[in-house]
UniProtKB/TrEMBL annotation:
Transmembrane segments: none
GO function terms (MF aspect): electron transfer activity; flavin adenine dinucleotide binding
Family recorded in the similarity comment: Belongs to the ETF alpha-subunit/FixB family.
Record keywords: Electron transport, FAD, Flavoprotein, Transport
Protein name per its UniProtKB record: Electron transfer flavoprotein subunit alpha
GO BP, sorted A to Z: fatty acid beta-oxidation using acyl-CoA dehydrogenase
Length: 324
């Protein structure tokens, strides 16, 4: 019987998250056309409706675990559902996005399955008979390459690093629905999730991030940044300095204790560039820093630096982009 790699198909608001396609691609590279079956699992209320969204991608089997009680992410319930499926399917590898959910679920699943785990993978390659995973260390100052010894193993992939899987190549996937009964041992039940952020673009998946630091000076100071982000189809982020000062919500915080982002373009406005902030954004493709202090450490990691007052520079950029 062929081996199976299982991809946790994360979704939100009735849509697959982009990182699901990136995890699929990671699985496809690791499988290396070596007769490995790639399966995906959709968990949630009405999750089966998303099976169609996976059509055409390199997936042989789509497992659907659907129940009203799974509408919101509940670590215990999702772990139970996923572990039961793993018991039935016996995947040798499980791929998840390195999202808030994936970061929570993967280690719990690894403990349950007694699996090896690698988090925050940014590249997957085949070398001889081995699959080699790369992950950043020390805020991107170093990278380690790792291989697994033994199975099963679990990988989380950092959003926006591995190119998404492309449609094509495979016949229609088999869709298998699985019953779900909440275990009586559940200690928590999620009644509702109240969203606080109003951003249209998910920060961790945004191609462009415009971030503000303590230099924005107030919550109103974020307005020019929001305007620029909206014009560019990007998302707004922040340093912890800005969050601590109460200028914005902690949901926007980027860094060691916040979100990790890897956009095509990261525009840091009034952010000094502390190591803890760099931990969350230093892998961005292009970093543009706007800071009035020419000695600010952010310029050391920036591809382009503008020494100036953000309240002059950001509106000028917006004006120019609007003309383009
Ligand atoms: P500051 O360091 O105060 O920098 C403000 C910058 O704005 C300055 O460089 C200044 O020159 C510039 N400026 C001021 N006015 C203007 C203007 N008008 N125009 C242009 N530039 C201007 N930080 C994070 O960001 N994310 C984290 O996840 C995080 N986790 C942490 C975890 C731990 C355990 C610890 C100890 C710290 C953590 N921090 C984190 C905090 C971090 O050390 C810094 O304190 C924080 O990043 C500083 O935020 P800042 O750059 O906005 O503020």
């Amino acid at each position: 019987m062929s081996e199976t790699y299982l991809v946790f198909a994360e979704h939100r608001g009735g849509k697959l998250r982009q990182v699901t396609l990136e995890a699929l691609q990671a699985a496809a590279v690791a499988a290396d056309d070596g007769g490995v079956r790639i399966a995906a699992v959709l968990i949630g209320h009405n999750a089966g409706a998303l099976a169609e969204a996976l059509a055409g991608y390199p997936v042989s089997d789509i497992h659907v675990i659907e129940d009203a009680s799974l509408e919101h992410y509940n670590p215990e319930a999702y772990l139970h559902a996923l572990a039961e499926l793993c018991g039935a399917v016996r995947p040798v590898a499980v791929f998840l996005g390195h999202t808030a959910l994936g970061r929570d679920l993967a280690p719990a699943l690894a403990a349950r399955l007694k699996a090896g785990q690698l988090s925050d993978v940014i590249a997957v390659e085949r070398s001889g008979d081995e699959t080699v995973f790369t992950r950043p260390l020390y805020a991107g100052k170093a990278f380690e390459k790792k291989v697994f010894r033994g199975t099963p193993w679990i990988v989380t992939v950092r959003p926006n690093n591995i190119p998404p899987a492309a449609v094509g190549g495979l016949a229609t996937a088999n869709v298998a629905k699985h019953d779900y009964t909440a275990p009586s041992s559940l200690r928590t039940i999620v009644k509702d999730v109240v969203r606080q952020t109003s951003g249209k673009v998910d920060l961790t998946e945004a191609k462009i991030v415009v971030s503000g630091g303590r230099g924005v000076k107030s919550s109103d100071g974020f307005k020019p940044l929001e305007e620029l982000a909206e014009l560019l189809g990007g998302a707004v982020g922040a340093s912890r300095g800005a969050c601590d000062a109460g200028y914005c919500d902690y949901a926007l915080q980027i860094g060691q204790t916040g979100k990790v982002v890897t956009p095509e373009i990261y525009i840091a406005c009034g952010i000094s560039g502390a190591i803890q902030h760099l931990a969350g954004m230093s892998q961005s493709r292009i970093i543009i820093a706007i800071n009035k202090d020419p000695e600010a450490p952010i310029f050391k990691v920036a591809d382009y630096g503008i020494v100036g007052d953000l309240f002059e520079v950001v509106p000028l950029l917006t004006e120019e982009f609007r003309k383009a």
